[in-house]
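Researcher: Next entry in the queue.
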Amino acid sequence: MHSSGFLKVLAIIAVISLLFDWYVHSGLKTLTADWQSNLWRSIVLWGYLIISIGVTALFLLGFGAFTTANGMRPFHEWMLSLFLTFFITKLVFIIVLSLGDLGRFFVGIFNKINGSGSVKGQAAFPGRRKFISEIAVLVAAVPFTSFFYAMFKGKYDYKLHKTTLYFEDLPDAFDGFTITQLSDIHSGSFDNTEAMQRGIDLAKAQKSDLFVFTGDLVNNAASEIEPYIDRFGQIKAPYGQFSILGNHDYGDYIVWNSEQEKAANLDKLKQHHKALGYRLLLDENVTIEKGGQTISLIGIQNWGRGFIQVGDLDKALQGVPKDAFKILLSHDPTHWEEQVRYNSTTIHLTLSGHTHGAQFGVEIPGFRWSPVKYRYLDWAGIANEKNRYLYVNRGFGFLAFSGRLGIWPEVTVIELKKKTV
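Model: Structure for this entry, 421 residues:
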């Protein structure tokens, strides 16, 4: 059963959306006022109302039937995504149209004051000009088409990010050692298996020495990864495949019938990591040996500012030589910010994910922006604090919004190099 607060939020959203529809409809009436074809005018005006109100109705019906016992399914994500697409498109249209109407208002006030409208026998407030509605349509088409691209293409438009890092104390045998990283698979959101396979093939094609996965295999339930175990299990590396848990993997965002059921889900998920061929690191470390030399790979459970904090870095470091070259897998980059970068033990490289880069933003040479920057100091790519590096993967999958725009899904390859003086 839904709380009254949730129902009130849905009601408010519905009212705002309907008010938007009324205003947009008035702009479309201006746009089509001089059309010779009454049929096309009716198709545009009524077609807009039917589609826009229909999307709002589907969104309300979808989330009216939503239960936290099951969590969001691809259907809910699509309904939310379509609603957001129309909502933001309407908002942009309204902003442009309202600027024109504001200009009309000030002209009307000026005419009222000097009496020019009444003298000439004309209305003081001028009518809305068609070209304002035309501009509103053109500007609103940008978010409309962009969001549809994000939903149908962008969320599976995998990008390869390669980074080379240099360390003075890297063991010689690991000079040129490569690591492929995936993060935030969120398997419960996939709706196109063959498109998703392209990302797996991209990861396989790198033929890295080591493969790591840095958390959020599922949205909520262990069963979500089951249709894809054979596919993600294709990723192999000579020095092994290793993984950790992310905040979504603990099942904290849905309601379970009992704590025992929730614990059984986590146990099942751990078994799925094994079926994938991943060695799940739970506050522990392993030694990677090459050419008679070693590095330490450390993995902790989730620890994030504002999220579940069960990871124990001290426990994970037990048995690791202080002078060892260390790579840490930690899902949330805030863990690096708060516990790793200034730690008395030098951890050379931390690999994280979690942020998704908000699945929306701009990344061009010399400029990068996403709304997630207002929540996370380090939200994508590399960060460095006195040669202690953090790499934040932008995520392989998607969650809630069934799309990606500007911040594309990522396959990461990091090469370790010996720094020579």
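Model: Residues 21 and 49 are 7 Å apart (CA to CA).
Researcher: Noted, moving on.
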